[in-house]
Amino acid sequence: MAMTGQERVRAAEEAVEQLGAGLMAVGVALPSLRVDPVSFADRGGLPLVDLGRCTIDTALRLVAVLHGVGAGAAR
Questions:
Q1: What angle do CA 26, 22, 29 make, to 5 degrees?
Q2: CB 35 within 8 A of CB 17
Q3: pLDDT (0 to 100) of residue 71
Q4: H or E segment at 61?
Q5: What is the 3-state secondary structure of 15-54?
Q6: What is the pLDDT of residues 18-67, one digit of tens each?
């Protein structure tokens, strides 16, 4: 059964919450993380997650975390 518009929005909100919590757990905060309101206009698709803007420091911390995950996966 296809998801309703309300279910799609809630799924996107849950994804944003989980992503934000996961990033915070490794010391990275994306201050503009949100569900993109413009994507709600597409009634057939899923709303988009807007990762937003961040400082250079935050971007570099995110890169470091991603490199750490990649290094851990290679073991």
A1: 65
A2: no
A3: 66
A4: helix 56-74
A5: HHHHHHHHHHHCCCCCCCCEECHHHHHCCCCCCCEECCCC
A6: 999 999 999 899 999 999 988 877 666 778 999 999 999 999 999 999 98
Q: At 14, is the secondary structure helix, strand, or coil?
A: helix
Q: What are phi and psi of 49, to 5 degrees?
A: -95, 125
Q: Which two tokens stand for residue 49?
A: 């997650």
**Predicted local distance difference test score (pLDDT) of residue 69:** 76
To the nearest 10°, the Cα dihedral for 19, 47, 30, 75? 40
In this structure, are residues 13 and 32 in contact, taking their beta carbons and an 8 Å threshold?
no
In angstroms, the Cα distances linking 45 to 4, 6, 39, 50, 56 are 10, 12, 8, 15, 32
Secondary structure (3-state) at 58: helix
Residue 35: alpha-carbon gap to chain centroid:
9
